[in-house]
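Structure, all two chains, one model.
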Amino acid sequence: MRMNILVALDSNYVKPLRIMLKSLFFNNPQEKFTIYLMHSTLLKQKELVELFTFIKNEGNSLEEVYINDNYFKDAPVNLHFSKEMYYRLLAFKFLPQNLERVLYLDPDILILNSIKSLYELEMKDYLYAATCHNMSFIREINKIRLKPYEIDEYYNSGVLLMNLGLQRQVLHEDDIYEFIDNNQLKLIMPDQDVLNALYPKKIKGLDRKIYNYDARRYLYYKLTTDGKWNMDNVIRNTVVLHFCGRKKPWQESYTGTFHSLYKHYEKLTFPIHALSN
Amino acid sequence: MRMNILVALDSNYVKPLRIMLKSLFFNNPQEKFTIYLMHSTLLKQKELVELFTFIKNEGNSLEEVYINDNYFKDAPVNLHFSKEMYYRLLAFKFLPQNLERVLYLDPDILILNSIKSLYELEMKDYLYAATCHNMSFIREINKIRLKPYEIDEYYNSGVLLMNLGLQRQVLHEDDIYEFIDNNQLKLIMPDQDVLNALYPKKIKGLDRKIYNYDARRYLYYKLTTDGKWNMDNVIRNTVVLHFCGRKKPWQESYTGTFHSLYKHYEKLTFPIHALSN
């Protein structure tokens, strides 16, 4: 079957994006993918051509979704949040109107196994499917921070399955702008905050250790599952390995449990030239 | 070109052996291999058939080199060392007499890159090529331990390129037995000790961080190269990653820098069944 993947990025993440896509293709050899790339002027033409060639050589297709920055000229923007944050929230407007479903993926990710169980998830009347932080202290902080919105869980927006058909029916662009205008000072991770505050009951929760495994927290997952989620289970059953946080595995100073694995996929993606950024 | 690989193992290492071979095939897609498997009665027939099928499906061939235990009935054997230790030392006798060269590899290894530079090494009048421990304290201990033999370096026998043509001309089985008889009490790692004591000038030294990288010592290699041998260089330039020591990456309790990478190759090798031993 053909799956729709949404990515949105600036030039700094073009190489990690390719590594993420390579891992997706490598571990899903039976599937065909259409990659929707949302971007504004930040992406260089040369990089776009290279990305296009790479995806085509892997037997998949790239669709450019160019967004003119002027579109957001009246939208609230400040130091904390840029226009790119709207891409995810408004994807239902920018993507082809016949698409019913798309899976958004951050570029700082490795796909380790078949993505089918995630992509084919029963959505019913959920607008999104995402994983939540299951650490209670973060949940409590966010509950307080985003009062009076009724937050039960705080979802991470790095892996986001979107029910586009339903979104087009019930979501309104102006609600988003209004929310941001009213809450500017409270917002830390704007797109994630909007998602959590505006649609708390409309997000289907996913198991994080399978669909959005935080690469920094190997021991946490292992210990909270009585050792069951060991390295063997991560490699065989975790679908999305997410390199959350400021330190990234393509940076020289990185050290972490999955460093060697990331570098392996990096070499598969760029057999000759090392990643420079 | 066709390369000759020598492996020798008992049933406990059949699964790691397949993982090692998978990594060899995966990272050397241009080459064809003949795998010579030296074994005695320890290997189960079912395992041999599975191994044969696996290697054939990868486009390579397996040659069984069965060694009757009776062959060694007069050879010195004791608690410390078994008959299997002779396999490596006497490979020149057991392998087909037309083979000029073979590369012996331990099963607790991953091959990360092209093996060509190692296999095609100029041997001239060297009997072996191997990597040495470059830690001076180990070298000094072994010098004392194996006196009066003139040891400059202490070589590791886990990766051993053999000049079989020359070995047939100059090596004598009886010298090995005699040496062992005379030094029984001193020997710790018998095959390695024999190699180091009998042929110290006839072993060509190889760069360990490329051809026999000790997986426990990431920081050591990195620091002793002023940071040059970082994860990027290991993944792109190290050919043999060797999981030395008692703790092995297929064991539940293992933790180590290359754990995730090992498990990745394990899954490539055994997509369905996890490694049980």
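The mean pLDDT of chain B is 86.
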